[in-house]
Amino acid sequence: MGNIVANTNKTKSRSITISAKKKSTGPITTFGKSTSSKNAVTHGATSPKLLNDAEHQHYITLLEDLKEPHPNQNPLVRIQLEQIAKLNIQLERIQNTIDAQFQISRATSSIYDTLLKTLDIDQKIADLIANGIFGISSNNEFLE
User: Fold this and answer.
1) Sequence-distant (≥ 6) Cβ neighbours of residue 130 within 8 angstroms
2) Degrees, nearest 5: CA angle 64-74-86
3) pTM confidence score
4) Do residues 92 and 98 touch, judged by C-beta distance below 8 A?
5) End-to-end distance of the chain based on CA atoms, in angstroms?
6) pLDDT tens digits, residue range 28-76?
7) CB half-sphere exposure, 39, CA atoms < 13 A
8) Angle at the Cα of 72 (from 67 to 77), degrees rounded to 5?
9) Burial, 99: exposed, middle or buried (Cβ in 10 Å; 0-12, 13-18, 19+)?
10) Can you say how many angstroms the Cα of residue 51 is from the centroid of all Cα atoms in its chain?
11) Which helix (H) or strand (E) holds 64?
C-alpha cells in the first residue's frame, strides 16, 4: 500500500516537472540570452567556449602541435583535432580547480591546527570557532 502512494507521488512530481518545462520559454530579450549563454562560464570547467585570449592562444598552439604530426586534408580529422585541443583545455581547467580546492583545504586545515595549538583549546571549541569564521569543522567539512 505504501508503494502505491510513493508511486503516485512520483507520478505527480514528474507531471509537475514536465508541465513547468513546457511553460518555460527561456530568455526572450537579447540581454537575457546573452546572460544565460554565460551560465556554464561561472566556473568555466565545462564551457565549450574559450574564456579569454590566453586560452585562445593556448588552443591555437595545441591545435598546431596536433596538426604537425597528422597532416591531413580530411575534414573529419580536422574536427577531431580541434575537439582534442578544446577538451585538453577543459581538462586543464578542471585540474586547476581541483588544485585550487586542495590548496584551500590545506590552508584551512593549517589554520584549524594553529587555532588548537595557539589558543590551547579543546576540539569542540575549535570547531565552534572554525565554523563561525570559515564554516568548517575539524575534518574540513563545511557546516551550515
Assistant:
1) 108, 111, 112, 115, 136, 137, 138
2) 40
3) 0.51
4) no
5) 37
6) 888 887 777 766 555 566 677 888 899 999 999 999 999 999 888 899 9
7) 6
8) 75
9) exposed
10) 14
11) helix 53-67
